[in-house]
Amino acid sequence: MFKQLLTASFLIGCLTIGKAQTDTERQQIISTYDEGKIATAKAYLENMAEKNRAEVQEYLALNPSIQKTRVSNGEFVWLERIDRYGNPVFISTTNFNGGLTIGVNHLHSGGSLGLNIEGQGINAGLWDGGYARSTHAEFNDRVTFGETEKAVSDHGTHVGGTMISRGNNTQLKGMAPRGTIVSYRFDDDVSEMFNEAAAGLLLSNHSYGRLVDESTPVAVFGKYEETATSFDFVTNLYPYYLPVVSAGNDRNDGYNLLDNGYDILTDRTLSKNSMTVGAVEGIFAYSGPSSVKMSSFSSWGPTDDGRIKPDLVAKGVSVTSLGNDSDTSTATMSGTSMSSPMVTGGLMLLHQLFNQQEGKFMRSATVKGLALLTTKEAGDNPGPDYRFGWGLLDVEAAAKMILANNQSSTILERSLSSGGSYQAAFSTKGSNTLSFALSWTDQPGQAPSDAEDDPTPILVNDLDIKVTAADGTEYFPYKLDVNNPEAAATTGINNVDNIEIIKINAPAGDYTVSVTHKGSLLGSQAYSLLVNGATPKTASSRRDQITSLSMFPNPATNQFNITFSEPLNGAKILVNIYNSIGQEVLTKQFDNSGNFNQAIDIAGLSSGMYLVKIGDGNVSSTRKLIVR
Question: Secretion system C-terminal sorting domain: from which residue to which, for each copy (predicted)?
Answer without folding.
Answer: 551-627
